[in-house]
Amino acid sequence: MTATLLPQPDAREGWDRLEILTALISSPSFDPLFRPDIVKIPAGHPVYRWNCLAGCERTVMGHGDLCGAHQDLWRKHRDAGGMRAAFLQVARPFGPGEGVEEQPCRICPDRPSSHLTLRLCHHHQFRWYNYRPRHGDAADFDQWLARQEPSAGYGCCLVHVCPEKAFSPLGLRSRHDARYQREGRLGDAALPSQWGNRYERTGRTVPVEYSDEPAFRRWCATAAAVLRPDQVNLRGLPPLLRAEIQWGMCWHTRRQHWKWELAPIQRIADYSRTRGLRSLTDLDPADPGLRTAAGREGARIASSIAGGLHPLYVTPEDTREAGYILTDHFGRKLSNRPSRIDLSGISQRWLRDLVWDHFADVLRSPSCPRSGSTFDHTRRAGLELSAFLELAAPGGGHDPGMLTAGHMHKFVADQRQREFDGLTSLGARGLHGKPSIVTANTRQAVFTRTRRLLRGALESGEAGRLGLDRGFITAMPAPGRVVQRTRAPFTDEVARALADEANLHALSRDHDPLDRGLRDAWKTIIVTGRRCGEVLQLRLDCLGRYGGLPMLWHDQTKVGNYDTAIRIPERTCQMLEAPPAQDPRRVPGAEQPTAHPRGTQRDGTVSHHLPQPRLPGRPVLQVVPQGLQELD
Questions:
Q1: Which end of the chain is less enclosed by CB atoms within 10 A, N or C?
Q2: Which of 39-53, 320-334, 393-407 is least confident?
């Protein structure tokens, strides 16, 4: 009988990953806020904001930016026809809410307070409640407070991950005690009846009774941390998993991000601790247990952090072997594209490696494009050629030495016939996996990229190494030109309709109820004739004068021109240079624009640390109607 050895996980791999993250976390560029085991977020944090926008210390309600009390007041103010800006200016902050942070008793510093307003421990709160009825109106809280004596505390909570103080001799803080009772009191830990009068008042130690003390200790070792709106407790996690969450929280602050709540991150940590996971890469985003414990947002956050860690955990050689490429490995980030470009649909290994090497050369080039169209067209060309060879070439085209010029002629004829008949593509897929129709543009892109890919292999000598016939390469014809009719500019009637006051009012009412500058952006597009993106990405110092004439400085990123100036009307200049303090529609508390000095040298690399562009005096626009997108 022969024993079959199963592949074992490489323990060294986890240590290598931990060494990488430890070095990154210890670097000067890493925010020290995220280094402790318990990450505490201060109020007003620009990314992980948890407190009310109205200035109070209470937590926000759901995914909004107001606490429950201010949210109710805002609804009444809105129903009465009020504006949000005016409401935030006059909103009065409330006191601290429950669950933000543990407060010590004002008499016993070693005991937690059990009353939010009085800030008294359970013992002194009970004494005050007995004192007040006996003295009636003569009961003065300050005088009573001055006569009280502090009592000794009960030590820290026995739950291993809890940093707070116990509120009773049982050794648990109040929320953990309630959870222990709710989960069935494993080990039956209990205090004697009337323990305060029988033991504590006489100075004796309060005994704790157990039916199974080891079971109670096991519950304390596995109990989850208390959910706090201003912190993420990472105690008890494996070192690698803890470092991954710390790195992921800091990494999220450096990129264009959506809002992350702290509660789902805490639930991810609790779920991983319960399951005994050692890394976020072990989590499956589609795991129903994860979705139940952390919700859809938690699963999305875990997947996002794991995706950000992936370029740190794999090498370019690993991605080449697996059939994909990561632009992060080359210091590039394509506009509005993920870092991963999947090439696994190209079944022939030699063709897939050619596409991978071509992408690597483009990404290393100083003239690397910022958009993803170059990569999309080359990937489509590879998919089309691969699918055709799989059907028409001997052996599915996996042996490049068996391909001849005839196979390329057949591929060219197939593409032209599909274009003529409007048939679907063999290998490419469109949005949501739907088959893509072969058009004149897609056929031209396939011919151009296939010709460039194969001739590049011929010039580099890779084709000779593969045994690829020269006739197969040269048989790919030139793509030819596709005649496209240039769209005519707006007529005078269309321009007047676009700038009509009634239409502008409808635009503000329907698409920009908070008046974040969409109307001004639209008017600027009409007056200047600039692309939508060029107007929405104007810098703070975009206005200037030359010889007394107003000028608008903008970046034509689509064609690689920066700091270009055009003449604008005086009325448009006054509209754009209105300071925020004089703008009655300005929303208080919104993120302020960050200046990016005109004339700064910028190359083709997209940096995550560049300030977010926006209109002068207004926050960045989040919603763009379909009409604006079509103009770009």
A1: N
A2: 39-53
Amino acid identity for residue 233 in this structure: N
* pLDDT (tens digit per residue) in 128-159: 888 888 888 778 888 888 888 888 888 889 99
Which residue has tokens 């875990």? 302
- CA angle 569/571/575 to nearest 5° reads 120
- One-character DSSP codes across 172-188: --HHHHHHHHHTT-TT-
Phi, psi values for residue 550, rounded to 5°: -70, 135
Cα–Cα distance, 315 to 293 (Å, whole number): 33
Cα 259 to Cα 254: distance, rounded to the nearest angstrom: 13
- What angle in degrees, to the nearest 10, is found between the helix axes of 440-460 and 349-364? 90
Give the residue among 58, 48, 155 at the shortest CA–CA distance from 101.
58
Residues near 609 by beta carbon (within 8 Å), at least 6 away in sequence: 254
Cα 265 from Cα 507, distance rounded (Å): 38
Backbone angles phi, psi at 425, to 5 degrees: -75, 155
Burial group, residue 117, by CB count within 10 angstroms (0-12, 13-18, 19+):
exposed
Taking residue 230's Cβ as centre, other Cβ atoms within 10 Å add up to 19
Please state, in angstroms and rounded to a whole number, the distance separating the CA atoms of residues 607 and 213. 56
Of 262 and 498, more confident = 262
Q: What is the C-alpha to C-alpha distance for residues 393 and 409, in angstroms, rounded to an integer? A: 12
* Helix ranges, 529-616 (H): 532-536, 570-576
59 - beta bridge partners? 51
Tens-place pLDDT, residues 352-366? 999 999 999 999 999
Helix (DSSP H) and strand (DSSP E) numbers for the chain = 24, 9
The whole-angstrom separation of Cα 214 and Cα 210 is: 9
- The three state secondary structure string of 464-488 is HHHCCCHHHHHCCCCCCCCCCCCCC
pTM of the predicted model, to two decimals? 0.72
Q: Which amino acid is at 128?
A: W
- For residues 77 and 70, the answer to whether their CB atoms sit within 8 Å is no
